[in-house]
Design brief:
Blueprint: H1 3-10, E1 14-19, E2 22-27, E3 31-33, E4 36-39, E5 45-48, E6 52-58, H2 60-81, H3 87-100, E7 105-113, E8 116-122, E9 128-130, E10 133-136, H4 140-150, H5 157-174, E11 182-188, E12 191-197, H6 201-204
Antiparallel strand pairs: 1-2, 1-10, 2-11, 3-4, 5-6, 6-7, 7-8, 8-9, 11-12
Helix pairs in contact: 2-3, 4-5
């Protein structure tokens, strides 16, 4: 994989946090191809089912295919069993799908079920690893610095949204492949809220 391919696939910032009663997934909105900004409105956080979602770094087409596959499996599971798919089962499904096909993405998966909020990251082999907070993409190391310093277990959702926004904003200050605003999704037992902002400071304040 040459430098251009690496930058095209993984130039972004995504973060996820487990909070009191929910999970927050956030990303910047810039898509890059080598040294060029190819989009300022890229969607990097997707809903999966009614109370879960996926934030991705990598190929947009691969992310769309993965999300479509997972969403269809969730709907089928719930139709057959008349109950919601647990988040750990969804994470296992995502890992199995990743091992079977090459999507060209790295992602964070979060959601809420009867056992509470859960957040998972995935290694290169598709193994699901549970986290309280996580970051990925080219801006991930910068975002991790703020998350490590300020994350607190059981923090309120509003505080988690603010921290996610500040982590993405910090990454955008240092990472050329991250920028152009914020997309933030909040998953709770009541459902999903997704919002887009031109300036992360609106949420970070």
């Amino acid at each position: 994989m040459d430098r251009r391919e690496t930058e095209t696939e993984f130039g972004t910032t995504i973060v996820g946090l487990v909070a009191d009663g929910g999970v927050v997934l956030a990303s910047d909105r810039r898509a890059s191809a080598g040294g060029m900004v190819s989009s300022k409105r890229a969607k990097k956080v997707f809903e999966v089912g009614d109370r879960a979602g996926l934030a991705f770094t990598g190929a947009v087409s691969g992310a769309q295919a993965l999300v479509s596959r997972l969403d269809n499996e969730v709907r089928l599971y719930e139709l057959r069993r008349d109950r919601r798919m647990p988040v750990d089962a969804l994470a296992s499904l995502a890992g199995n799908v990743m091992r079977g096909e090459r999507f060209g993405v790295q992602h964070l998966l979060g959601g809420v079920d009867a056992d509470g909020p859960r957040l998972y990251g995935f290694d290169a082999g598709g193994a699901a690893l549970e986290h309280a907070f996580a970051a990925d993409g080219s801006g991930g190391p910068t975002a991790y610095g703020l998350l490590e310093a300020e994350y607190a277990e059981g923090m309120p959702l509003d505080a988690a949204r603010s921290l996610a926004a500040r982590a993405v904003a910090a990454a955008c200050e240092r990472d050329l492949a991250s920028g152009n605003g914020l997309r933030v999704a909040t998953f709770t037992g009541e459902g999903t809220d997704v919002a887009v902002y031109d300036d992360p400071a609106v949420v970070a304040s």
